[in-house]
Every structure is written in C-alpha cells, then in structure tokens.
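Reminder to self: keep the SMILES exactly as supplied, no canonicalising. Ligand is pyridoxal-5'-phosphate.
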Amino acid sequence: MSDAVTRDWFDQYMAPNYNPGAVIPVRGKGSRVWDQDGHEYIDMATGIAVSALGHCHPALLDALTTQGSHLWHLSNVMTNEPALRLARKLVEATFADKVFFCSSGGEANEAALKLARKYASEHFGADKREIIAFKQAFHGRTLFTVTVGGQPKYTEGFEPLPGGVTHVAYNDLDALQAAISDKTCAVIMEPMQGEGGIIPGTAEFVQGVRAACDANNALLIFDEVQTGVGRSGTLYAYEQFGVSPDILTSAKGLGGGFPVGAMLATDTVMASLKVGTHGSTYGGNPLACAVAEAVIDHVNTPEILGNVKARHDQLVAGLDAINAKHGIFEQVRGMGLLMGAALVPDWHGRAREFLTAGVEHGVMVLVAGPNVVRFAPALNMPEADMAEALARFTKAVDQVVAG
Ligand SMILES: *Cc1c(COP(=O)(O)O)cnc(C)c1O
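Structure tokens returned for the bound complex:
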C-alpha cells in the first residue's frame, strides 16, 4: 500500500463521527493555508474560532519552541512558571480572582457546572441543585455538557442523562424569570450563542439574567469558549454587556491553536474547589500555558482589538454588498470577528453549500447550523487578506446562486 496520505485514510482508519472535506491542508501562515496540492485558501474559519492570531504566528511559535526546550510537563503536584504567569494575567484582565486550567472548552464547562453544584451544596444545602440553560446552546460534548447544551441531537441515545437541568428560550427574560427559583444553583449562558446560529444576547436580557441570579442566590456562568479572547472586540464579550459573571469559561482562541482551557471565578466561588475536589492531568501544562500567555499578551492590545473592529466593519460591508446583489441574507449579525450571515427562508438548510463552494474558490468559511454561514477569521487578519477573502467568497456565492 502507498504511503501517500489521502482523504480515503479517514474512512479507513478514523472514527466516522466527522465528515471532513476532500482537501487536506498541510501548511499555514497568517491567514493563508495551503493544501497537499499547493492550493491556497484564505482562512475565515480559524478552525472554529481557535487560531486567534492566524497560523504559525512568530510570537506563538517562539513561546512554543522556547518552552519546548525547557520543560513540557509536570503533574499538579508541582506548579510551573507559565501557568502562574498566565493565571495572573487572566486575573488582572478580568472580573476573576482565581483560575483553574484544563485542556478544552467542554472540560472548562464541566468544571464550572461541578463547581456551581459544589458551591450550592456548601452554602445552601442539598435542595439547590437545578441548572438553567438555554435552547440551542452549546457547551461541549461530555455527558454533563451535552445535557446542559440545548440541542437534543447531541443527547439522543446517551441516556440516562444527569438530572436537574432545565432549558428555556434564549433572549426571553420572562421565560427565565418563570423558571428560576431558590432551587436554582446556576444559570449557564453564552453571551452570544455560537453553534446555535450566532445569536447575540440583548443587553436587556443579559442584565436581566444577572439580576434574576442575584435575586435567587444562583451563580451566573458565562460560556465564553467561542466569544472570548478578543473575538467579540473586547478581551471577553461580557465587558460589552455591563455585567460580570461569577464563573467564566474560556478555551478555543485562548491557546491560538494549542489545546488549553480555563475556568475563571471569583474568590468566594472558587473557594469551593478544595484540594482534591477536581482536577486535570494536563490542566496547567507548561507548553499550553506558555503559548496562551503569548496569545493574551498579543490579543489584549489596542492594535489587535482595533483591528477586530476595522475588519468587522469591512466584513459587514462586504456581506452587505453580496446581499445587495443576491438578496440571500436575512440578517448579518454578530460581534467583532464572530459573524453570521443568516439565510432567507427560501435558502434554509443550504448554508453548507456556501462552505463547499468557498473551498472551491480558495476561502474557508464555517456554518452555524443549517441556515447560517459563519465567519471567524484571525483577529490580526490584514485588510488586504479580508478584501481577497470577500472577493473569493463573492465568487463562491455567485456560483451557488447560479446553481
Ligand atoms: C466549542 C465550544 C465548546 C466546547 O469546546 P471543546 O474545546 O470542543 O470542548 C463549549 N462552549 C462553546 C460556546 C463552544 O463554542
């Protein structure tokens, strides 16, 4: 058998829980990616909002290789300098007083939900167990996080599920107020729903959820796995809503492509994680934390956050121009560089066709459900790359519309 790696190997050797496209990228630089045949793509996907500073950013590469020649791993029996530095930076830049590290968004949310239950049991006793979450929410793929997520397709067949979880409609404050009670230990929400279709929370809703949590002694958990680390135009999206959570989860962009997750919380809440109550072998891994520290250093600057705003405006203008020609978008929405173009009803179910046509025309985009084309380019994308990406995507749309 030939040693040339091909897409067929996926079907032959890998679990069939994904359906990857035909091309296999082998190299990336900034916002450009090249496949096995040397074809170039402009990356408007960054994985799924992961490679925050594009591919192979020199500062991240330097952090990775420098740390890689010093120390890769320790157990949590000892601490390490990169984890301590990253924790301090996250605390200084946010509402939080303490940080717990893990390796993914799902694990960060699992930790947040467990912490909320633990905190409630310590402070309010055994009756305060209930978690309120939102329909169409996405919080990860562990059994607890798929149960809390609001997409039944991810729990079907995995029953019995953990109990005490209620779902209400997103952006519906009346529904939340009707569901919350003194039995609620936490409300978990994305400040803007990502997988659910790029649906920003309204300020009134997010502030109302905070008030309802306060009135019922319930913790508020913001899942910023997708919206965090500059993606929304501020370091974390909550800054734009005028309220802080008690617990916040971060992953995806945090490592810029290196697996790392974090759960941030106030002192009072985090105090419920005692020695031995929770843990993670890789959490606080020196390599991961060294890279994440470089990500935070670069993202949390006026240059990058200013570029997010400028590229946001450029992207919206480009999508509006496409829409002026074809009238296929009902709404262009989102925050910063996490944007969705929601298709008009006639086009419902066809978002993936734009992704596929994009690849044919040298631009990688995403979908968020069957009706929304999603864009999550690098936060440092140059103006010229965005212009070229929009030109290529315009051709892709022309082709799909022409049939
Ligand atoms: C991607 C995502 C997760 C899950 O993160 P993993 O790293 O895949 O476990 C959780 N919450 C949100 C909002 C996400 O977008």
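Points to follow up:
The mean pLDDT is 97.
Residues 104-106, 109, 138-140, 190, 194-195, 223, 225-226, 251-252 surround pyridoxal-5'-phosphate (CB under 6 Å).
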